[in-house]
Structure formats: C-alpha cells, structure tokens
Amino acid sequence: xxxxxxxxxxxxxxxxxxxxxxxxxxxxxxxxxxxxxxxxxxxxxxxxxxxxxxxxxxxxxxxxxxxxxxxxxxxxxxxxxxxxxxxxxxxxxxxxxxxxxxxxxxxxxxxxxxxxxxxxxxxxxxxxxxxxxxxxxxxxxxxxxxxxxxxxxxxxxxxxxxxxxxxxxxxxxxxxxxxxxxxxxxxxxxxxxxxxxxxxxxxxxxxxxxxxxxxxxxxxxxxxxxxxxxxxxxxxxxxxxxxxxxxxxxxxxxxxxxxxxxxx
Length: 264
Prior knowledge:
The structure is a single chain. 22% of the residues lie in helices and 49% in strands. The protein contains two helices and nine strands. Strands 1-3-4-5-6-7-8-9 form an eight-stranded antiparallel β-barrel. The protein is of the alpha+beta class and 264 residues long. The chain has helices at residues 2-50, 251-259, and strands at residues 69-85, 88-89, 94-107, 112-125, 129-142, 149-166, 172-193, 196-211, 221-233. It folds into two domains: 2-57; 69-233, Porin (Beta Barrel), CATH 2.40.160. It is elongated. Residues 31-62, 239-264 are annotated as: Disordered. This is Secreted protein.
C-alpha cells in the first residue's frame, strides 16, 4: 500500500517537473526571438539612417603644402670655424657677425619642400672687412601640416664666397670660393594665423674652399654655424582642422551617435 502511494507521488512530481521545464524553455525561446527581432530592427534602422557610407574610413586630410609657394626671411648670428688656408685657422682672422637671408620653396608633397636659399653675413675681422655670401639648394622635411606649430629639418648643398678687403696702407681684396657639401638645419615655426608664422632655426654648414688667393690646391675644410629667428609666409591659406568630435569616424556615424546617445 505504501509503495503504491510512493509511486503515485513520484509520478506526479515527475510530470510537474517536466511541465515546468517545458514552460521555461518556451519562455526563453520567446525572449530570444524578441531580442533577435529587436536587434534586426535596430540594424535596419541604422542602415537606413546612416546610408551607404556607414563604417567608411575617413579620407586623408587635404594636402596643404604640395604646390604652395613658401617664403621665409631670417635674421641671426653666423660663427665661422675651420681653416681659411692650409694650416691657417680661421679663428685667427675671423669672428662671428650678423647674418640675414631668405628662402624660397615650392611644396612637392604634404611634408616635402624644395628650397632655394641664400644668406649674407657681416663677419668680424681684425684690420679688415670680411663678408660671406652663400647660395644653396636643398630639401626640407616637415613633420606635420595644417597645425599651428610646424617643426622641420632640411638638408642641402651650396656655393660660398668669402671675401676680405682693406683700404689701409697695405690694401688688399682677397676672395675665396668654396663648396658647402652639407647644409643641415632644423627649427620650428608657430603660425598665429594660417598664412604667417614665426620661429627659430639653427644651421650647420660644412665644406671646403676650391679657390683661394694663394693659388693653393689642398683641401681646406671650413664650417659656419648660424642660429636666429625667421619669418615664414605661406600666401595660400592653410585648411582648418576638423572638429575633435568627428575625429576618427565618418560623418554619418557621428551624426547617428549624436541622435541616439543612449546606444553604445
């Protein structure tokens, strides 16, 4: 008798458990179906609202240097070193002085500029007048574009003319012609307005005199170090940066995010 009662109880519990499991599975399936339908509806709405450009990569920033005519004027100090003639250090005759010059360039790409440069220095000389004139051609590499601060570095070669003259009792007028085999400069310009900037520069020129008044043919290495300020002019206005809110994302995506800020 007791065993039959126990069997009925177990059977009833089994039926109840099976019914509970079945109803739970049906509820989970319905919940999953609703979530899937909601996600599909959201995706369809996003696609309709954002259009075919959704997820497209932002195009590269416009090239603001290629084809531009770039002009610079500079003022600084020039310090010569090395030899004037074989075995004759220039420091015995020359000392530093005021130098001023100009650069004219054309942009080849967003970071590269072909430059023509020239400078004229009034050097110190004991009992004489010394002048240095140089002309060079080189390339400048700009680390960035379209921002307020523009750091750069350049390399080139050039021609140099160094002259000594005196009007005293022992008047003379000596001219040296040399080749700058390396003209390395670096600096940075700050642009308070798009077309005008001001900055600092430092330049090291090294070479050898090819023609001297004494007629010597030996190698006579020399160097000139210059540092100062320069004014930069870009007649074609630079572009403006895009707002930070859309940086790194396409416009349709940014607009869609703004409309639905609660979605992540």
